[in-house]
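WARN  no MSA supplied for this record, continuing single-sequence
INFO  ligand: protoporphyrin IX containing FE
INFO  echoing inputs
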Amino acid sequence: MTTDAVHILQALTTPEGKADPYPLYAELHDLGEAARLGPGQVIVMGYDAINAVLRDPGFRHADLATIALVFPDWGEHVSLRHSADWILNLNEPEHTRIRGLIAKAFTARRVASLQPAIERMTDELLDAMADRGADGSPVEFMHDFAYLLPVTVICELIGIPESDRETFRPIARAIATVFDFEDFDQLRAADEATVELEAYYTGLAAQRRAKPRDDLLSALVGIAGEQDGRLSDAELTRNLTLLLVAGFETTTNLLGNGLQLLLHDQALATAVRTGDVPVGSFAEEVLRFDSPVQLATSRIGYETELGGLHIDAGDHLMPVLGAGNRDPRKFTAPDKFDPMRAEAGPLSFGGGAHFCVGAALARLEAAVAFPRLLARFPAIAPAGEPVRRTGLVLRGFDILPVAVG
Ligand code: HEM
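INFO  complex generated
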């Protein structure tokens, strides 16, 4: 059984496996909810087992000492060192304290209040796409829409002035490679971008302290919990960096993966445009069917049973969200795209204490973007070969050419 799981994992890292991991996930499901890859390594692919891992605080994120064992040069990279302070990588009680403080500023009301801005930005991007495609030329959806909308929305949320936003896109991209880096040049670029971004945030935070505005940054610097204290400067700048990178390419991939499905299913596109398929149901099924984030961050085990497998203390667990979303034990015909299915929700935003902070914002962006896109370009069609991203963690496209005329 171990050998099977190892072979499947190896196949998942090949170009073919990355292009279409789903047949390999189906093979993984035949092995059960979780399987041992070797001493100390466990892959978790069953829906219930993944949920259990994410919701049980006994499964912890690796501390620095554990990370240094597998990657001794880790500490030399400021991007990785500082990402260790992201709430994504913290355990309780630090996680609970910092996330609690962030939640006081990142409220449902603040997200909902962004809707008019998201609508305006969507329409501006659609106008630009219409101009570019007016003569019948293909328009590159990922660049011209799917990257620009989420990064602009996060800048609006945080309160980054419009004049500074242009410089944010490459910085955000460079730092986001820490989720999925394939070589050390990428990591060095992420290091430089981290230093630049944190210096920028420090300056902007000082301005907002002196003169608060109605934005997330002003709310975050203004927070003074009775018992929880404040966010330290480092906690603030590092977690602002997390918000930018966690909220950017993930949502980009939701938009790209969703459009790819619409491009190849005219009836579905019509149903989403007319509202016969509610856009919320469509977006949830895109999240399940082709999750923008395929792997959750790894967790360290304690001695317990997980989906019939014995877990030893110190085991590294790899929860494969994209596989859990296609678990035949949970979903009937899991490889069928069915926005009207009324089964379990997708695992794509994680679960438990680390459940995605930005889930409501991502859903709002999708709910605004898809109907407007389809209304503006009812005949939108593929216009060339799409190019997939090559990482294992984030699943989506680098290039998705469309004809909008
Ligand atoms: C479709 C879009 C998105 C997807 C699929 C997604 C997915 C996820 C997942 C799977 C996790 C948990 C990872 C784990 O437990 O290992 C997570 C956490 C997080 N997400 Fe998202 N995300 C999306 C959009 C956003 C947005 C828009 C923001 C912010 C503006 C955001 C901010 C965060 C933060 C801060 C965390 C860490 C939460 C914690 O550890 O307590 N995400 N996201």
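The radius of gyration is 21 Å.
INFO  checksum written, moving to next record
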